[in-house]
Amino acid sequence: MIRPLLDGLRLTLSYFFSKKVTLQYPDEKWDVARRWRGRHVLLKHASGKIKCVACMLCATVCPAECISIEAAAEPDNRKYPEKYTIDLGRCIFCGYCVEVCPKEAIEMSTAYELSEYSREALVLTKEMLLEPPQERYKTEKKKGPALSTEGTRSLLEIVRRPKAEKTKMSVAGG
After folding, report:
1. Quick check: is 83 in a domain?
2. How many independent structural domains does the chain possess?
3. What is the pTM for the complete model shown?
4. pLDDT 10s digits, 109-149
5. Could you tell me the maximum CA-CA distance found in the chain, to the nearest angstrom?
């Protein structure tokens, strides 16, 4: 009865005396994972033309209905988006637009500083989406505890069960 209490106190005290993980934002930033879904970016071909063929699949699949596209045609009948807008105020960053695109014309960057002072600034046009997102503050990036494994201990190392309890569990379970 007292043993679990002592194990819990030992765990609490080990975290109490360990190094803190607080970052001084915006001077320090997290280095996010590559799969992070941040701001959208429209991609171009090597020739400089936009990859999007205005098939409207991204606007159709979007659950927040934040994408709007107006299509136009070139003289060779190739479709392209004349107007392409994404309202980041409505976007839920699900990534469906990226997954459904047959031409891989849209991707989500790792930019996470998307706050603005007005709702109108959250509406991105085609020209804004063709440019990569700009960093707001030039600072050093710091690896987060979920990405870095150095200096961390597993839960089994922190809370150790006595050998007698382990053998009871293996005998009872087997």
Report:
1. yes
2. 1
3. 0.67
4. 999 888 899 999 999 999 999 998 887 666 566 555 544 44
5. 81
